[in-house]
Fold this protein.
Amino acid sequence: MIATLIVSLAIFCISTSASVIPQQPLAPQSSPTWTPNPLPLVIWHGLGDNYKAEGLRSIGDLAQEINPGTFPYYVRLDADPSSDRKATYFGNLTLQVAKVCADLAAHPILSTAPAINAIGFSQGGQFIRAYVERCNKPPVANLITFGAQHNGISKFQNCAATDWVCQGAQALLKGNIWSQFVQNGVVPPQYFRDPADLEAYLEHSNFLADVNNERVSKNETYKQNLLKLEKFVMYLFSDDTVVLPKESSWFSDVNATTGEEIKLKDRPMYKKDWLGLKTLDEQHKLEFKIAEGGHMQLSDKLLEEVFKQYFTPKTKGH
């Protein structure tokens, strides 16, 4: 019963709209050579999606069309698509990121590339960033996130008056969100961050408080690895009602008293450069972008622009 209620809330909180709209699946391809061809592209999908989803594969197809020779790799936590989808709701994020680190480091193509490019969709955005911070082997050159919850989610959407399952699930998680069971086994609560209860968050958060370097003891490796990026581009969806607050996609915080947005540049994590974001910004490597529309409403036009601007191989001397 507890597991059923937790799934209900997980689906309600972030919504399976993190999935990319299905298109045609990607056809098999041969391995490219690396110079002067494009870098491999690693894609981490969002909540409720799976690595074999047609819409996700179509993005790799588009990347190949724009930059022929691109090798797309779709992050997976299980070879079975259904189990991979389940892992977006259940699992320990520390272990999941470690598995992806091991998989990429052992991949015969990715491990021999000079670097890789990476895209993270929805919660996959903060997860692929965690990959950069915690291992980064092979190293990421350009990191693009769409609708990520870089500063977590601070509240859940309201339940319908007669949706008793949703209301029961909300009551369950609100009372147990910092329990070891939830923090080690349910994915969305591991990036939950309530600005009105930061003490509990800093003490119990299994994932976000660590990868955001918010605790007293800072991990210098996280900062140094992010500083190796050539570009860190964060897209916020203008009409996002799934990510709460939507400005989390830009690392913004929320004032616990007034509810007003606290922009990244006004936060201690930027001013004290806990993750190297200030340094990246000063080097013109950190970009804040807006994608028009609701959560994960991506157009081929926008993706084409991203692939051309950030993933097209540079010519010699540039």
